[in-house]
Amino acid sequence: MAPKKKVTTTAKKEEAKTTEPKVEEKKEETDAKKRKADESKEEPPKKEAKKETASKATESEEMEDGAEREKDAPLDKRPILKDTVSFNPSDTTLNVIPTVGGRVLMALSDGGMQYLIAGARANIGIKAGRYMYEVKIIEALNPAESSTTQRGRVPVPRQLVRLGFSVAGSSTIVGDTDDSVCFDSEGFYHADKKKSAVSQRFTRDQVIAVLLNLDPKSPNHNTVSLFREGERISEPQPLPDNLKDKVLYPHICFRSVTVHMNFGPQSMKPLPFKCRMLQGAAAVDTAPATSPSAKSGKCKVMLPVAFPDEGTFDWLDEFLDKNPTYVELSDRKILEWAVKSGLWRPKATGWKHSNDKPEFNFQIPSMDDLSVRRVLNAVAPVVPRNYVIMEVKSNLIKAERMEVLNRFSNTMYNKVATVIMGEPAEDYKEKQREVMIKEKQEKADAEWRAKKS
């Protein structure tokens, strides 16, 4: 038995020898884990430092994003504009009254005129560079409303201002067509017949600057910006594609306010960067608008003579498209103007739906009693423009024609009668065919959808 014990002891000793290195390996592993734990305890400050660095970098990026990207205007030695920036009467609505050299604009407010938007486009446009103009509301009006019998809805807001740019020959009400852009006093930007809230509001006694950037070297190329009291209140808004590479004219629309226009050369409130005003622009960067009396020195008053229901108004629409300097004086244009100004009118049907003598059913006494027509007939002859007197019935009656001619007796007008009778031209026939085909297609589509439903 003794030998067996010895063998066992020897085996145990050998096993003990073989187990000792394993214990040492475990100890080394334990020490390594401790060192890693100690290192991990020291690592959090490093991670926090990285986080602090990252947060500082983010803050700096945000500061760079919020910083003004417009730079100071460089020194420009090119000859500056010599013409005075003002307003051509042909590029204003019929209720605009320019005073003090065109720097103060007012609007008529009698006989329902207080509900209609007034619009004016400047006579100098911008085709290159970066320039601005300023506007200040110096008076906010609250014209008295009609009696308690008034049931119609008046347009809101009562005081309204739109500031922007438009192309020559476009509508005198900025923001309603796709050939103009503008900011309004309620904080909206109008472009492509859409509006979006992009800016802060502005009101009376605040200097508002509108900046147009057409400089290809600028990061804000082809944008419009708005500033209040020298501080930016909107991000640069992009111009629609159809307005790029076109001459853009400063344009303002307003209602129930009096505004002071400042085209420069000195600004009332400097911006965060140096920017030249339109009056101090380089001459090659601008383009003048043509006046209807520029060539002959006289304006025209045209009276179309035609039978009823013979396509007279279709002819007139085509004529106005080809001759945008003419202003139509008619009841249908008054209604169109009122709707664009925000007045609500029920849709007329049957015999009341007439272009020559449409019904004024706004349910507002000062609009429905045709006071607007009376005011316009008194104002139009004293403002030189090219006019089309569109009254089908009155233009056929000699006594009523003479009444119109007596109103425009001033020597600055050439009076012309245009007889619209007989066989129409081929291009007119072709356009009428296209209109008829379109109407038939729309009617057929409506009937098909009704049957399907």
Keywords:
single chain; 453 residues; alpha+beta; Jelly Rolls; Rossmann fold; 8-stranded antiparallel sheet; 7-stranded antiparallel sheet; 21 strands; 31% helix; disordered N terminus
Proportion in β-strands: 15-25%
Biggest pleated-sheet summary: 8 strands, antiparallel
Give the radius of gyration.
Answer: 37 Å
Task: Provide the low-confidence segments as ranges.
Answer: 1-27, 40-64
Order of helices and strands: HEEEEEEEEEEEEEEEEEEHEHHHEHHEH
Tally of individual domains = 2
Description:
With 453 residues, this protein is α+β, with helices and mostly antiparallel strands. The chain has two domains: 87-288, Jelly Rolls (Sandwich); 299-422, Rossmann fold, CATH 3.40.50. Helix content is 31%, strand content 24%. It contains eight helices and 21 strands. The chain has helices at residues 2-66, 312-322, 331-340, 365-368, 371-379, 392-396, 398-407, 426-452; strands at residues 87-92, 96-99, 104-107, 118-122, 124-126, 129-140, 160-166, 180-184, 188-191, 194-197, 207-214, 223-228, 231-232, 237-238, 249-255, 257-262, 286-288, 299-305, 326-329, 386-389, 413-419. The strands form four sheets. Strands 2, 3, 6, 11, 12, 13, 14 and 16 form an eight-stranded antiparallel sheet that branches. Strand 9 and strand 10 (194-197) form a beta hairpin.
Please outline what is shown here:
This protein is 31% helix and 24% strand.
Outline the fold blueprint.
Elements (H helix, E strand, L loop, with lengths): L1 H65 L20 E6 L3 E4 L4 E4 L10 E5 L1 E3 L2 E12 L19 E7 L13 E5 L3 E4 L2 E4 L9 E8 L8 E6 L2 E2 L4 E2 L10 E7 L1 E6 L23 E3 L10 E7 L6 H11 L3 E4 L1 H10 L24 H4 L2 H9 L6 E4 L2 H5 L1 H10 L5 E7 L6 H27 L1
Parallel strand pairs: 18-20, 18-21, 19-20
Antiparallel strand pairs: 1-4, 2-3, 3-16, 4-15, 5-17, 6-11, 6-16, 7-8, 7-15, 8-9, 9-10, 11-12, 12-13, 12-14
